[in-house]
Amino acid sequence: MVIFALKNSALEAIERAQNLAELETSYKAYLGKKGELTLILRSLANLNEAERKVQGKEANDLRNLLEKRFAERKKEIQREEIVIQEKLAIREHVDVTAPGKRLPKGHTHPLTLAQTKAEEIFQTMGFTVAQGPEIETEWYNFDALNIPANHPARDMWDTFWLKPKNAGHLLRTHTSPVQIRYMEKHNPPLRIIAPGRIFRYEATDASHEFNFYQLEGLMVGKEVSVANFKAIIEEFYRQFFGKPVAIRLRPSYFPFTEPSFEVDMRWNKGAWLEMMGAGIVHPNVFRAVGYIPAEWRGFAFGMGLDRLAMMKYQIPDIRLLYSGDLRFLQQF
Ligand code: FA5
């Protein structure tokens, strides 16, 4: 009877144990040195042989059973504890009270800022934005612009030719070919700008890159003059820099304009800086696109977008624009 009661209470205690410490306590209470069952097993020696046989077997069976159950329960508890640990870990992982992680966010490159601003200003003055390919043919980059093969003016632009050379393809050396492409498809009067990337086989320094950006402009109409050109450029600079800017036209030479000039701009009442080439469209350019030269007049210009951005944001070296250096880029 004693053993039967002991069995029930021991099994119950095993089930009740919620953690390893509780289980250990129960284990000691029954099977430890002074545990209830241990004491019974010890007392067997005092019994006569017949009783010892019967009770000895019962007590030993119970000991085996309890040892087995304790071991099983121990494993169960260990498994449960692992699950609880995992749940806690997951809860930590989605802790809604943790401060959010800030994802690095990109932003507009200073060259793009300058280009977008320039486009906006010209658009308010009635100019459409046109585009052309960066890989050009000799015809669009040179011939149609009144620069035939073997003409010394081709040396004005050191060219990246594409292989094989005979194919007559090159990386455009200026945005002027877009003038031709646009006039081929549209009739005058017209006003366009053409911003884009260009390439020159040149050494680099603080104000020269071999890959840079230009913004071409072309206005064709019945009575387009240098005075119109000057007024539009002054208005452009006024809006772009947010204040009136003095400019001057200096005689120059381009095969596709006649007369031709360089436009300099005065920065902070200091030095005059060369900003663009420009001029009145040459009759041969109109001929190349099928316009009748006697009927139309136009001005064209090509400004360096990089230099414009450098002036606006006071960037001392053009190569910074292409460095990909975040310490530089994050200032804009
Ligand atoms: C031209 O490329 C002519 N197509 C411009 C033009 C268009 C004249 C229409 C007449 C009519 P030029 O090579 O001078 O011209 O270049 C024009 C502008 O590009 C320069 O004034 C300068 O601002 C910029 N530029 C020229 N070379 C570089 C360079 N290596 N790096 C950065 N900017 C440059």
Automatic annotation (TrEMBL):
Give the family from UniProt.
Belongs to the class-II aminoacyl-tRNA synthetase family. Phe-tRNA synthetase alpha subunit type 1 subfamily.
State the organism named in the record: Candidatus Wildermuthbacteria bacterium RIFCSPHIGHO2_01_FULL_48_27b
According to UniProt, the name of this protein is Phenylalanine--tRNA ligase alpha subunit
In the record's cofactor note, how is the cofactor described as bound? Binds 2 magnesium ions per tetramer.
Any one GO cellular component localisation term in the record: cytoplasm
Q: What is its EC number?
A: 6.1.1.20
Enzymatic class: ligase
* Cellular localization per UniProt: Cytoplasm
Can you name one GO molecular function term for this protein? phenylalanine-tRNA ligase activity
The protein's matches in PROSITE patterns, at most eight in alphabetical order, are given as:
AA_TRNA_LIGASE_II
Annotated TM spans: none
Q: Where does Mg(2+) bind?
A: 258
Q: Name one Pfam family in it.
A: tRNA-synt_2d
Q: Which domain of life is it from?
A: Bacteria
Residue ranges annotated for the Aminoacyl-transfer RNA synthetases class-II family profile domain, each copy included: 120-331
Q: Which GO terms describe its biological process?
A: phenylalanyl-tRNA aminoacylation
Record's catalysed reaction(s): tRNA(Phe) + L-phenylalanine + ATP = L-phenylalanyl-tRNA(Phe) + AMP + diphosphate + H(+)
Subunit record text: Tetramer of two alpha and two beta subunits.
The prosthetic group or cofactor this protein requires is: Mg(2+)
Q: Which gene encodes it?
A: pheS
Q: Which key words tag this protein in UniProt?
A: Aminoacyl-tRNA synthetase, ATP-binding, Cytoplasm, Ligase, Magnesium, Metal-binding, Nucleotide-binding, Protein biosynthesis
